[in-house]
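Can anyone check this?
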Amino acid sequence: MPYPLHHITLSVSDVKASVAWYTAVFGPADIVEREGDGWKRTRMTWPKMDDLRIAVMSHDEAPEGRFSHLNRGLDHLGFDCGSAAEVEHWAAKLDALGFERGPLEDVQYGWVVTARDPDGIPVEFFCGK
């Protein structure tokens, strides 16, 4: 039985800024907000994207500083694209939104473009060869 990823939850410094970034990139989402003692979380679901679910969460006791992919844990988020043209589409969308991104790369195993969310978490759009 396959076990597809149900959701991913990212710890962020500013839930509202992260929700704004992800919904700008992926479009309007169904939103569910929760708060507890010392934390708040917003879960975004995109029904038009096979129910992609990303939650962003802040913790009152989180250390200061930006995300670094060099620390143990998350390195980046990678989203599957069906073609090099689709990777180019995401690059153009990031440009249109005014979001900084890396170059369009044509590497031996695929095509890729990477941006960073407000906390510096790399978000990659990838199509394998």
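Reply from J.R.: I decoded it. The radius of gyration is 15 Å.
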